[in-house]
Write a structure and sequence with these properties.
There is one protein chain. With 260 residues, the protein is α+β, with helices and mostly antiparallel strands. The protein is 29% helix and 22% strand. It is built from six helices and twelve strands. It has helices spanning 2-16, 44-50, 55-61, 85-98, 100-104, 110-137; strands at residues 35-37, 75-77, 149-151, 163-166, 172-174, 179-185, 193-198, 203-213, 220-221, 226-230, 239-246, 249-251. Strands 3, 4, 5, 6, 7, 8, 9, 10, 11 and 12 form a ten-stranded antiparallel sheet that branches. The chain is globular, with a radius of gyration of 25 Å. It starts with a helix and ends in a 9-residue tail after the last strand.
């Protein structure tokens, strides 16, 4: 009985001393810190990329003006709303307040006097504004590498914020669209040797795990230009990790890249 009781005590101790939970920092549901201390190699673009923020919002929040120069030991405040939080919250209120007005206002005067001319003037504006926004906001994308698709975008879990493309060591990595290189380095954990290209005020793209970086910060690149050589930096096999971010938020590259 004495031996049996000792055994039960040991088993109970093993059951209660379970390993501490491990948190995956790559998941999007991990809370953002309040501040970030700049280290050598950091840029405003890389900091915004790391924390999933739009760089313009981060710059304005910290009083940083173009060309967005930051210095080591500088404290960057990260306590800002997400890039889509304010538009999503304010737009329903605006549309709700305007809904009753169109029902009352169009009836009195426009119909008998200039109903046709007003229709002619209004319809081009309504059709032109969304199209103009789409054209100016979306670059002409192309595939950054020709290898097979290894893994796809995972929006729910946040484990993969882009796509992975296979290939061989040293194969060319191409710019997916024209733009300016705003980051070239290896300061972001998990990305290896990384390039970030700014295409316009809305879209950025990233090219990770390279073996060699062919361009530097400030360079302007054209779509299809060789910007790096494929490698395995920061990962376990040769591949290109490719991301597209719209207003700081990761989006599925497959919705923008042409069909093969």
């Amino acid at each position: 009985m004495f031996v049996l009781s000792i055994t039960l005590i040991l088993l109970d101790g093993c059951a209660t001393n379970s390993p501490a939970p491990v948190f995956d920092k790559s998941r999007t549901n991990i809370k953002r810190p309040q501040t970030h201390v700049v280290i050598p190699g950091d840029t405003l673009f890389s900091i915004a990329w790391r924390y999933g923020l739009k760089y313009e919002i981060l710059a304005e929040h910290n009083g940083i003006k173009p060309p967005y120069i930051i210095r080591p030991s500088q404290v960057i405040r990260l306590d800002v709303a997400g890039p889509t939080a304010l538009p999503a919250a304010t737009s329903p209120a605006k549309t709700a307040s305007r809904q009753p007005q169109p029902r009352v206002q169009p009836a009195p005067a426009p119909k008998p006097v200039t109903s046709r001319s007003s229709q002619i003037k209004q319809t081009p504006k309504a059709n032109a504004s969304p199209q103009a926004g789409q054209v100016s906001g979306a670059p002409q994308w192309r595939w950054p590498a020709g290898g097979p698709l290894l893994s796809s975008f995972q929006s729910n879990s946040g484990l993969n914020k882009g796509i992975d493309i296979g290939g061989k060591l040293g194969e060319p990595v191409l710019a997916a669209a024209s733009g300016k290189v705003v980051y070239s380095g290896s300061g972001l954990r998990g990305y290896g040797k990384l390039l970030i290209v700014k295409h316009n005020e809305t879209f950025l793209s990233a090219y990770a795990h390279n073996n060699v970086l062919r361009v530097k910060e400030g360079d302007f690149v054209k779509a299809g230009q060789i910007i790096a050589e494929m490698g395995s930096s920061g990962t376990d096999r040769v591949k290109l990790h490719f991301e597209i971010r719209r207003d700081g938020t990761p989006v599925d590259p497959m919705k923008f890249l042409p069909r093969r």
